[in-house]
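With this grant's support, we have settled on a layout for protein records. One resulting record is reproduced below.
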Amino acid sequence: MKRYKEIILFQNGSIGDFLMAVFLAEQLHTSGCTSRITILVPRTSQFLRTFIGAYPFIRVVEVSRSKPISVLALIQFLRPKTLVVLQPTPGRVPRHVKLVAWLLTRLPGSALLGFEDSDPLVKKLYTQTLVYDTNVPFLTTLHSIAMALGVEQGMALTPSIKMVPDTNILAHLDLEGKPYVFIHPRGSSEKRSFEADAALEFLNALLVQFPDLTFVISGSPAEREWVTTLIMQSVAPERCVAACGMNGTQLAALISNAQLFIGVDTGITHLACFLKVPVLAIAHKGTANWLPFYHPGAQVIYRLQEDKEVHNDRAYLNAHLAGRLKPFGNVPVRECIHAATEMIRAMNVYKI
């Protein structure tokens, strides 16, 4: 295993990808591959830093072409024995990103690890090239990076994250001592999100069936109005709490203290899985290799677009991939209600 003075992980700034990068960083650090890791992101660096307070060896640096002065920060990384790892993506990594990564590895002892794509420059720029197989779980892809670096021994099979939750948010939202279910109904794209009518039907069904439970509805700052409207239109707005624009430590507190987390295929759902809470993941138009089957406490429900039936097992998904990514459809709201109801009852969150 080669040791580096610093490892730089290029990331896109999304929560799910960032959490996976933190997990990989911890494994590389624990193995002795490096003592210092930087995660480069093009956006949301201030928010993402709230997830790494327990990792003094990790830093987050924002570099964006829209902020030319931030590009100057890259000069500090031009030093010997630096490893740069480019994020795997189903498409092509932009050429300017490849070139920046290559420039950062021009000094002795440095290397650039990336994944194959259709760009002919890949063979000329990368020191080591891997294959991104979207038919296998993304976690397996992370293990392939570790294996390529010779540090796969002892790498954790199930990802987690160390966080110090900001429990003050529980008192602020009047949730102390209350059993509640945390619902994250919106994803990073519209297609992965609950439609407004479906979200209302889903929430109302749970409010009626479980009158002793509170429901926390979360969203980004931009989704505050959407969440507020959902709550005000529900059958019991007094038992709903909006949690929009929370930072990482506040989210950790709210999720860790929930009886159950319910979310779509998005980064906050991965956070819940990393925090080891019970999870119902509803994969509206999800991405096969990103579904959180890695978490033993998660139930994942999905529907392939070509199917009418909803499934919750990895075996069916693997059997029907047929060597290619198949499109997912939405999970019918009645199936979402059924899965949530059964999970709440089975966990004794609500006493019948």
User: Anything to note?
Assistant: The first helix runs from residue 15 to 31. The chain has a mean pLDDT of 94. The chain has 13 helices and 14 strands.
